[in-house]
């Protein structure tokens, strides 16, 4: 996601120069940590009814899935190198495609800081399973965000494209994480972070994140938060996120996600945004096919997070089929509507840029092959 090697304090004293080193025994060899290597390729073809002149299916800053219209593309080709923390481990994930390009676009630019530096990095973190209490885990580096229901990897989500709740909250974060299981069902996390989906910081402040989670066989609920100075002038941004999933039957799963956020502004007028998403997935255990639906309402009345004052609504229907375990096919229809003109059309203005309209209809075929 080998058994525990000895710590430095437990190692025997080195042999004298006149002595041959002891032969390793079979138990020592078997218990050595093993490096796991995996990969997948996530490709897609998208058709946009608007036929945007610049081929962009979403407005600037978002679109980490199916970004380009009417062409086959690679959303994410990822290679993972994983050493389980027993007690020390790491995970390095490198990604190529349109998704990493979009997600790193807002990285700071400066000395040793630029989106091009981190363009192909999905995760790079070291882990230490301390053995304290029930198992305190420390993780440091660049790792997935604790915010939201949807992962950066489309193969791990019920739908292929991602919600506005996902697109407009962090997919990754950089810093130190402490996670601890209080019991078989309750756990908590604490994060000290550079900021909101950044590797290189744009100010001298740090952000704090936290999570309280409950997980049982049928119900899981998490309360997540992040707060800290995110703008160059250290104005505070705070987000509270609630995610819940319920396995109603062996075939039907339901989910919801809720975000509430505020941000200080230099002029003294706070900005806010909020959104809610509802999810359902029907996947009988004996079937290789699943159907998922998502409906969403997202209000960014001040334009603080999306860049445009708007209210977004979307409805997505996804048909998933797995002909073999390592191959996922997703056929998806998605309709988005905004209160502002944000979606590109085939017509262009005098500046050569697409004219904008308030809605769009997407049809996407996604293919994910794992190795």
What percentage of the residues does DSSP assign to strands (E)?
over 45%
The span between the termini is 15 Å
Strand order of the largest sheet: 1-2-3-4-5-6-7-8-9-10-11-12-13-14-15-18
- Please state the second-level CATH architecture: Beta Barrel
- Strand runs, count: 18
Shape type: globular
Q: Summarize the main sheet.
A: 16 strands, antiparallel, barrel
Predict the CATH topology. Porin
N-to-C series of helices and strands: HEEEHHEEHEEEEEEEEEEEEE
What helical percentage do the residues reach? under 10%
Low-confidence runs (pLDDT<50, min 5 residues)?
Answer: 1-30
Mean pLDDT: 92
Number of domains: 1
- CATH level-four homologous superfamily name: Porin
Number of helices: 4
The top-level CATH class is: Mainly Beta
CA-atom Rg in angstroms: 23 Å
**Could you say which structural class the secondary elements and strand pairing correspond to?**
mainly beta
């Amino acid at each position: 996601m080998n058994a525990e090697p000895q710590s430095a304090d437990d190692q025997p004293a080195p042999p004298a120069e006149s002595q041959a080193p002891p032969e390793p025994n079979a138990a020592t060899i078997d218990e050595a940590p093993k490096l796991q290597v995996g990969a997948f390729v996530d490709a897609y073809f998208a058709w946009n009814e608007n036929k945007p002149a610049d081929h962009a299916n979403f407005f600037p800053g978002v679109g980490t899935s199916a970004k380009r219209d009417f062409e086959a593309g690679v959303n994410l080709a990822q290679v993972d190198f994983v050493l389980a923390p027993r007690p020390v481990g790491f995970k390095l994930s490198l990604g190529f495609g349109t998704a990493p390009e979009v997600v790193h676009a807002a990285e700071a630019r400066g000395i040793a800081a630029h989106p091009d530096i981190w363009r192909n990095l999905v995760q790079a973190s070291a882990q230490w399973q301390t053995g304290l209490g029930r198992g305190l885990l420390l993780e440091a580096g660049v790792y997935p965000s604790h915010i939201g229901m949807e992962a950066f990897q489309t193969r791990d989500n019920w739908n292929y494209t991602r919600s506005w709740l996902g697109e407009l909250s962090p997919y990754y974060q950089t810093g130190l994480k402490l996670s601890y299981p209080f019991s078989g069902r309750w756990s908590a996390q604490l994060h000290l972070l550079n900021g909101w989906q950044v590797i290189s910081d744009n100010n001298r402040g740090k952000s704090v994140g936290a999570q309280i989670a409950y997980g049982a066989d049928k119900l899981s609920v998490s309360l997540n938060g992040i707060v800290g100075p995110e703008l160059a002038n250290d104005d505070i941004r705070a987000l509270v996120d609630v995610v819940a999933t319920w396995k109603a039957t062996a075939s039907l799963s339901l989910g919801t996600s809720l975000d509430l956020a505020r941000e200080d502004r230099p002029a003294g007028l706070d900005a806010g945004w909020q959104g809610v998403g509802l999810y359902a997935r029907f996947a009988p255990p004996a079937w290789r096919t699943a159907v998922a639906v998502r409906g969403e309402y997202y209000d960014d009345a001040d334009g603080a997070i999306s860049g445009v004052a708007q209210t977004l609504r979307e409805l997505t229907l996804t048909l998933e089929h797995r002909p073999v375990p390592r191959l996922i096919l997703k056929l998806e229809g998605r309709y988005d509507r905004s209160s502002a003109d944000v979606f590109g059309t085939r017509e262009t203005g005098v500046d050569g840029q697409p004219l904008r309209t308030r809605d769009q209809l997407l049809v996407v075929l996604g293919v994910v092959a794992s190795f």
